[in-house]
Amino acid sequence: MQNNTEPLKNNITIVGAGPAGATASMFLSSFGIKHTLIDKAVFPRDKICGDALSGKVLPVLKKLNPDLIQQLLVQNEKCLGSNGILFGAPNGKTLEVPFKAVNSTLNHSPGYVSKRIDFDFSLIKLLNPEYCNFLQGDRVS
């Protein structure tokens, strides 16, 4: 991981280092493609949304690296397995959304719940500085 203010020397820039941006960076790195990843925050940082990782997320992480899910679980001991989400409304009504495993050969929960401060930072720590020029605390204008 690097925080470098050198001029950009590549043609690909990813704005936002949340799960989508960090994952895009990891895919580019896996193909040996140099790029810049920019985020206005300095990590670790919290975000008040999206603590659930559904069954659709896990196969994407597995494509990056078959051991990635296990690595993230080791780094993030507060990450909990989940079978779904239960939404509750002020009027007392609820809506249950089960997580369905996209790949039935997975040997873990179909989903997970993790605070964004923990999950996002776990991904940031896996960025490859050989290919990713990571600029944090910078804005794009």
Biggest β-sheet: strands ordered side by side in the sheet: 1-2-8
Please indicate the percent range of residues in DSSP E strands (runs of 2 or more): 15-25%
How many strands? 8
Oligomerization:
single chain
How many structural domains does the protein architecture include?
2
Describe the structure.
The protein has 141 residues and is an alpha/beta fold. It has two domains: 76 residues, 3-Layer(bba) Sandwich (FAD/NAD(P)-binding domain); 63 residues, no CATH class. 26% of the residues lie in helices and 22% in strands. It is built from four helices and eight strands. The strands form three sheets. It has a three-stranded parallel β-sheet with strand order 1-2-8, with helices on one face. The chain has a three-stranded antiparallel β-sheet with strand order 3-7-4, with no helix packed on it. The protein has a two-stranded antiparallel sheet with strand order 5-6. It is globular and about 55 Å long. It starts with 12 loop residues before the first strand and ends in a 5-residue tail after the last strand.
